[in-house]
From TrEMBL, chains A, B:
Keywords: Magnesium, Metal-binding, Methyltransferase, Transferase. One of its GO terms (molecular function) is methyltransferase activity. One of its GO terms (biological process) is methylation. InterPro entries: MeTrfase_7, MeTrfase_capping, SAM-dependent_MTases_sf. This is Probable S-adenosylmethionine-dependent methyltransferase At5g37990. Belongs to the methyltransferase superfamily. Type-7 methyltransferase family. Signal peptide: none annotated.
Amino acid sequence: MPTESAMNGGIGTESYAKNSRYQGGAVETAKEIITEGINKNLDIEKLSSTSVDTFRIADFGCSTGPNTFIAIQTIVEAVRKKFETELSDSRVPEFQVFFNDRISNDFNTLFASLPPERKYYAAGVPGSFYERQFPKDSLHFAHSSCTLNWLSVMPQEILDNSSPAWNQGKITYSGEKKEVLKAYALQYAKDLDSFFKARAQELVCGGLMAILVPTVPNPNSDLSSITFPSYDLLGTCLIELAERGRFDAAKVDSFNLPLYYTYPNELKAIIEKNQDFSIERIEVLNVRSKHQTDPDPKAFSLAKRAVFEGLLQEHFGNEFMDELFDLYAEKIKETAVPSNPKETSMITFVLVKRVLRMT
Amino acid sequence: MPTESAMNGGIGTESYAKNSRYQGGAVETAKEIITEGINKNLDIEKLSSTSVDTFRIADFGCSTGPNTFIAIQTIVEAVRKKFETELSDSRVPEFQVFFNDRISNDFNTLFASLPPERKYYAAGVPGSFYERQFPKDSLHFAHSSCTLNWLSVMPQEILDNSSPAWNQGKITYSGEKKEVLKAYALQYAKDLDSFFKARAQELVCGGLMAILVPTVPNPNSDLSSITFPSYDLLGTCLIELAERGRFDAAKVDSFNLPLYYTYPNELKAIIEKNQDFSIERIEVLNVRSKHQTDPDPKAFSLAKRAVFEGLLQEHFGNEFMDELFDLYAEKIKETAVPSNPKETSMITFVLVKRVLRMT
């Protein structure tokens, strides 16, 4: 079954809008590098020869804001300035911005919080970014931040108790089983390939795409050194709830986070396989040092709740969510996970250009 | 203050989605005439000379469906067939459809009910259709059904107890006061002018717009013969609630429905004032005879609730809505308003083409 649940909607205490400072940090950190990328790599002359009256931008996996608005603002300003400088004020196109996320995303909240002073026409586009969402050659700039670590579906073997990749008692691939990691990695490569194939159709030649991908450092020989203490701890909480009789232990076995953290070398190899894009820049952003995850256990628990609650509700029902995330906050406090240096997640920035297809 | 509330969201008993059969009747009735209009008036050769890779359609005031999906399906099919017939299968463009309504519209419900088998890319566009919502020259076909009877704001003099146009004790202009009717009509002309000015910018030259406008028959000399028994009855219910002590009587005086029903001659004159459009067809649709308003009092009350509840809640608070619409259903039953021949609302269809601007 495809993973369909989106980030927590609304603007309440448990909403993504109120609990996405870490993701916001990524966007803030990327501002400069995106502006630089547009200055250096957007070929205005070439684009304008095909008469761009409207410059179309899409943010894939936008959720509910405000991060998406900050990212879009950066892009619109950089492109506008480039048009003004290289051509003239009168040649600046109008901007149309498409906010994309899953159908279950809270678009009502997104629309209600659109910046009133924005200088672009806004639209929401519901649907999975692993598929086509836009007409051919209709976008000039694509953006996606902190979303390309989500799998489109869970690989079946993970959930199959007769498979060597059965991930019993765990909710992610952190651990010793190589088969589990492999199943996740294969699905990820397939998904990312779908993402790039779809975007290659949608972007005009010369169009740019900036992606901020949650990754882990390039591994040495020992892939099993990749661990996610914070996810393991969430798994432990689920097991404890099962022990308290809230649901069957088998429920935990059949639940896995559809998340995979690729590493820069693997990411680069997947993109290079797609001949429609050239990599203009790839680098690891130093997000963590500038935008520390909130060390307060309750805030840390809330941030994870905003992201995973929908997914967990679908599987376990919604009556255990308060208990689960209270327990999680407690365990976070006991183990001091947020400041644990073993948590290896980082963000890799990639800027690609849609090249002319050789057919 | 601009009127901001939208139709009732969701898919429950009181939702617009479940209570818009009359509006659906208009869309059904217009199917044939829209298809005909596209066949006769869409200049494919001319459009395709400007290389239409994507054919862009917008529905202004779409609400939550299903009516909007039926209308869009009709338009997409007619355009597709025309391309196939006049050019070739390979020249059929991709379709992108924009669903527009106020920011407070329930886009989440709209997106969740998008037809899965649709052959177009969908997007939602939040914002008032009395203002620009799209980039210049970006639309090929615009549509709007049963929405162009809403005013963008209430004219101030209606609410001013020192003005001859003060509409005390009434919630619409049905009645004897000419000043009230005049204030409504002036605001309407202004709003419709804004609508056409905005669409003229957004539509490409040769682009078409089909509007289904709730109207009344062309009046004779006696404008005050225009009456709306069903709205008057709703006003009576509000006064009765004030008498029951639910709210102050002044609350009713300061409430007016921001609805104006123009008549074919007036509509034509307003459109003709705008030099950017040529009227290709204008005619009254025989909706009522084919799609009678539900004569069941409860259903009639629900249909009005789906449309006006948001507006009434804003003004009177939400605690009286059940009482109000129960009372309304009772009064409908007593007076047999739904089958009252004095209710003169009908629907006028207009097809316009965006002509080359003479500058």
